[in-house]
Write a structure and sequence with these properties.
By secondary structure, the chain is α+β, with helices and mostly antiparallel strands. Among the domains are: about 160 residues, PAS domain (Beta-Lactamase, 2-Layer Sandwich), CATH 3.30.450.20; about 100 residues, Beta-Lactamase; about 110 residues, PAS domain (Beta-Lactamase), CATH 3.30.450.20. Helix content is about 55%, strand content about 20%. It contains 16 helices and 15 strands. A hairpin with a 5-residue loop joins β14 and β15. α2 packs antiparallel against α5 and α6 crosses α7.
């Protein structure tokens, strides 16, 4: 239907058409989203079901694979018969050869399982397959393969499509009936309003306004109101203009007076607030504050100043700052020179100042000029006691030096990383075990020092530990650039600041190559002893049998 034709429809018809179009679009989008979501959930459930079955069968089949018990494995796979949608279930050895399998009864003799299935979850048009390794203590004993058909999933989709279509048609029918009944409550008042507007125009009532409106009924209503505006313009234009000008002048002057009064009151209030704020700030400030006059004599000190230097406000006020605070040997000429410099700009320094007791204290000084009327300048100075900070910095330097000395002499490798896992420090023993320098570790990380066969496993464990911020401990092999393999045991621990934020990780590495070699020799000796024991038992059994057979 053309846009022009739609505009010519009555308001009732336009409301009905608009309601049906918007409702139809909404119902259609809702149905499509519902079907898409249901199909997505069904696929997720099917994938989760296959993973659960695979994990269960794989766990139960570990012993059968380890002892090469194909019969036991087949019995375990028979449990898949309870899942009607599963077509195949196949166990493969670690070398990829067939070990045991389950085939649904209706497929026996008609289909064969694949020789080398694809890893992971694979969707096709009619089937869903999943293959995963069977592990025991991180050692792969084989693979388990499952194949499921999608007949029930497609049947579910077909039923939901029929149900959704039925609900959509019923919803649109209800919307149509309700709209046809309820739209009368909108169109009838508008038609009545148009009739009342014509009556107002005839009776010279000019309190209403009408904007341009679209539609036959609304267009008639706009014409009636515009007729009233024409009558007003013809007879009352001059009176209205004079009244408007007078009202504007009175309102403008009244507004000016009110603004002047408000500005004056606001300025007085702001001055009082600023004065109270400055008094509170100076009195309660933890920093020592002093205001000096043009000649270097103190005019104001706060309680923090009294606490830091030991002078009362009465003792400090009126005293020259160099005689009160500066150490002996500071001349008046030097003080005058400092006053000239501070009046030129900002001064920031750390220095020693004298207390009332004569003791010297380390302070951080901030001094700025305060311009006054008449061109003179006072000086505002802030003093902060930094004795504890300097002592803490000295202790920190000593602690860092002690750590580096202990780290360099330690028989184990030590390393430190930031919160993102980037290496910031390694000791000498770490460099000896990995064959890499500290600069190499900071630039390229630690991963290339791990043996290629252990690298993936260590990286995954490292990433999981960083994500969870937990302590890690494991063993792996290091491969030096010269080709030497070292077995190491490593451990990391998170460093959390006092604010609870992760600062980084510290780790240690211990060389266990000799320990691993000794353990391997013990295992080999144990296996040799067990083999000798089995041979002895077999020999004695044979001899016993021969005793009864021979005359």
């Amino acid at each position: 239907m053309a846009i022009g034709t739609i505009r010519e429809l009555s308001l009732r018809q336009r409301l009905l058409l608009l309601t049906m179009i918007t409702s139809g679009i909404g119902v259609l989008l809702g149905c499509l989203c519902f079907l898409a979501y249901d199909m997505h959930v069904a696929k997720e459930h099917r994938e989760e079901d296959l993973r659960s079955v695979t994990d269960l069968i794989g766990t139960n089949s570990t012993a059968a694979l380890a002892f090469d018990d194909a019969i036991g494995a087949s019995k375990i796979l028979e449990a898949l018969s309870t899942r009607n949608h599963i077509r195949f279930g196949v166990l493969y050895r670690s070398d990829g050869t067939h070990f045991a399998s389950y085939v649904r009864a209706d497929l026996k003799g008609n289909a064969l399982p694949p020789d080398r299935p694809r890893d992971g979850m694979v969707w096709t048009n009619n089937r869903l397959t999943y293959s995963s390794p069977v592990l025991l203590d991180r050692r792969e004993f084989g693979r388990f393969y499952l194949e499921s058909d999608l007949t029930d999933v497609r049947e579910r989709l077909r039923r939901f499509e029929q149900l959704t279509a039925l609900i959509a048609v019923g919803s649109l029918l209800i919307v149509y009936l309700l709209t046809a009944v309820l739209q009368r409550g909108i169109t009838r008042p508008i038609q009545n309003l148009a009739a009342i507007a014509r009556s107002f125009a005839a009776e010279k009532c000019y309190s209403l306004r009408a904007p341009p409106l679209a539609g036959r009924e609304l267009r008639q209503l706009g014409a009636d109101f515009n007729h009233m505006l024409d009558e007003i313009e013809k007879r009352d234009s001059e009176l209205s203009e004079a009244r408007d000008v007078l009202e504007l002048r009175v309102a403008a002057r009244t507004g000016e007076l009110e603004m002047e009064i408000k500005e004056r009151r606001r300025a007085e209030q702001e001055l009082q607030q600023r004065t109270a704020f400055l008094n509170t700030l100076i009195t309660n400030n933890p920093l020592a504050i002093a205001v000096g006059g043009p000649g270097g004599y103190l005019e104001l000190v706060n309680p923090a100043f009294e606490k830091l230097f030991g002078y009362t406000s009465q003792e400090a006020t009126g005293s020259r700052v160099d005689r009160l605070l500066y150490p002996p040997g500071f001349s008046g000429e030097e003080m005058d020179e400092r006053l000239k410099n501070v009046k030129k700009g900002f001064i920031h320094e750390t220095a020693k100042r004298k207390k009332k007791s004569g003791d010297l204290v380390d302070v951080e000084v901030h001094a700025v000029p305060l311009p006054l009327e008449g061109g003179e300048q006072n000086v505002l100075a802030l003093y902060q006691d930094i004795s504890e900070r300097l002592e803490a910095q000295r202790a920190l330097r000593e602690s860092e030096e002690l750590f580096r000395t202990l780290s360099a002499a330690a028989p184990i490798g030590i390393f430190y990383t930031d919160a993102a896992g980037k290496i910031l420090y390694t000791n000498k023993r770490w460099e000896e075990m990995t064959g890499r320098t500290a600069e190499h570790a900071k630039r390229k990380g630690w991963a290339d020092a791990v043996h290629p066969e252990d690298r993936t496993m260590v990286e995954k464990l490292w990433e999981s530990g960083f994500t969870l911020q937990i302590e890690l401990r494991d063993q792996c092999r290091f491969l030096t650039p010269e080709g030497h393999v070292n077995w190491v045991q490593w451990q990391t621990r998170a460093l959390v600041g006092t604010d609870g934020i992760l600062q980084g990780y510290v780790g240690v590495i211990e060389d266990i190559t000799k320990q691993r070699a000794a353990e391997q020799r013990l295992v080999e000796a144990k296996q040799a002893a067990e083999a000798a024991s089995r041979a002895k038992s077999q020999f004695l059994a044979n001899m016993s049998h021969m005793r009864y057979v021979l005359p």
